[in-house]
Structures are given as C-alpha cells and as structure tokens.
C-alpha cells in the first residue's frame, strides 16, 4: 500500500484528498498545525476518517514532519490562502449575514500584520518549495510525485499577488528534477456534501449564473469574459483527479481546470 502525505489534510480540499486516497487504497497521513481530523456534517460517511493518520506539524519546521516523508510515494501541498485578510476563511464559510460577511471578505489586509501564516509569498510559494525540497532530500521511494494545488486564474478584485505566488511556486518546483511535479489548477471550489447557506454558496451561485450566461447567451465568444468567468468545481472532483494523476507514473506537469472538469 503506497503512502500518501497531505499537508493541510484537514482543510476544505485536503479532507477530500485524504478521503479519495483512502478510497483508492493508499495509506494516508494528514499533517496540519492542529493534527486534528476535520468536522463533517452529521449525514456524511465518517468511516474513512478513522483510517487516516492525523498528525501535527509545522510546515516551516521540516524536522516536525521529515520522518513522515521518508517512505511516502506522493506528497500533496494543500495549503494556501486566497486573501491575505486573516478573516476571509471564517467569512466565506460563515452562516451569518451574507452582506456583512461579503464586506469582511473583501476587506483589504494591513501590510503591517503580515506574518509567515498570512502572506501569499510564505504560504502559497515558500511553504510549498520548502516541503518539496525536504521531500526530495528524505524520500527513499522511486519516482516520487509532488502535487501542488495551484490556481486556474485570478479574477477581478483579487490581488495579483495571489496568482503570482502560485505561478512562482510552479516555476520553482519545476526545477526539482528528482520529483515528478504535478500542478493542479482548479477554479472556485465547492463541496458536494455541504449545502449550508453561506458566503461560499452565494459566490458559487453567482459564478455559476455568470458562467451560464456567458456560455449560453454569449456563446463564450468574448475572450476577456472567458478569462474572468470560469466554471466552479467540486472538491471531490479535484481530489479524484489528483489521485488519478499520481497513479499514472508517467504524468507530470499542469492539470488545467478544463482537464479537471473532463468526465
């Protein structure tokens, strides 16, 4: 049974990667600051959670996780921030006033409050490179794969630092010749199981409506709209695509949003 290590395995996407890995027969270890499993909805099947090894680690302290990488066949970096505003994750999943949470979501960050835990450069780029370098130095597996959760494109209102940090990480990771690097580029993600009425759900509905209008009414013929109006995708589909790619020993490179949406 091949070992799969997921950094950020209890996060929004990370939990679905762990679940898909267990379902595919992998030995899965999740590393996160808390080391705790995620909270699932009451109706979800939780049997897979007991099969994951949930451990605590600090991404910027390789000694806290390097032993877990030695026998890993694949490592997945599922950490990242969309905004440097530290409150955005709680806002996007909040069930309170949509208008109030949307204003909190868009609130700009204070440059003076940036730390290693809330800057694009540190979380989206440096942590991934550090993890990959540590994996490269410690792994004993043949043809090891490293998966980086990148992004499809930026969109209006989102700081350029977000997409820039993702592309910079891809470039640096591509230079690590001893790893089979895989770059996953999803768009706005939602969870198929969660049906809560929160800001994430509202954004999904808006993006889906805009994409439907662009494709159905305009025929997708306006290039600039096609750049900014992109389909949403479920975390389950992204997770399944990741497992599929790491199981292909010859695959490396970019997996675009269009690739992820293929059935």
From TrEMBL:
<protein>
    <submittedName>
        <fullName>Uncharacterized protein</fullName>
    </submittedName>
</protein>
<dbReference type="GO" id="GO:0005739">
    <property type="term" value="C:mitochondrion"/>
</dbReference>
<dbReference type="GO" id="GO:0044877">
    <property type="term" value="F:protein-containing complex binding"/>
</dbReference>
<dbReference type="InterPro" id="IPR036291">
    <property type="entry name" value="NAD(P)-bd_dom_sf"/>
</dbReference>
<dbReference type="InterPro" id="IPR051207">
    <property type="entry name" value="ComplexI_NDUFA9_subunit"/>
</dbReference>
């Amino acid at each position: 049974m091949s070992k799969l290590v997921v950094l950020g395995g209890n996060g929004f996407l990370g939990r679905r990667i762990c679940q898909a890995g267990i379902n595919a027969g992998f030995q899965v270890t999740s590393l996160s600051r808390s080391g705790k499993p995620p909270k699932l909805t009451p109706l979800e099947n939780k049997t897979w959670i007991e099969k994951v090894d949930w451990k605590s680690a600090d991404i910027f302290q390789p000694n806290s996780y390097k032993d877990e990488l030695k026998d890993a066949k694949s490592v997945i970096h599922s950490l990242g921030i969309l905004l440097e505003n530290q409150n955005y994750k709680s806002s996007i999943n909040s069930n309170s006033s949509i208008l109030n949470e949307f204003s909190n979501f868009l609130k700009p960050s204070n440059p003076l409050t940036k730390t290693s835990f809330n800057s694009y450069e540190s979380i989206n780029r440096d942590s991934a490179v550090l993890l990959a370098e540590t994996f490269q130095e410690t792994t004993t597996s043949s043809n090891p794969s490293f998966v980086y959760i990148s992004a499809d494109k930026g969109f209006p209102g989102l700081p350029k630092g977000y997409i820039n940090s993702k592309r910079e990480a891809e470039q640096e990771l591509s230079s690590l010749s001893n790893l089979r690097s895989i770059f996953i580029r999803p768009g706005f993600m939602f969870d198929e199981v969660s049906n809560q009425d929160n800001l994430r759900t509202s954004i999904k509905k808006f993006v889906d409506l805009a994409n439907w209008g662009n494709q159905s009414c305009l025929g997708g013929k306006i290039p600039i709209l096609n750049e900014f109006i992109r389909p949403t995708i479920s975390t389950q589909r992204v997770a399944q695509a990741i497992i599929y790619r790491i199981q292909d020993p010859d695959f490396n490179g970019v997996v675009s949003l269009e690739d992820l949406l293929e059935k």
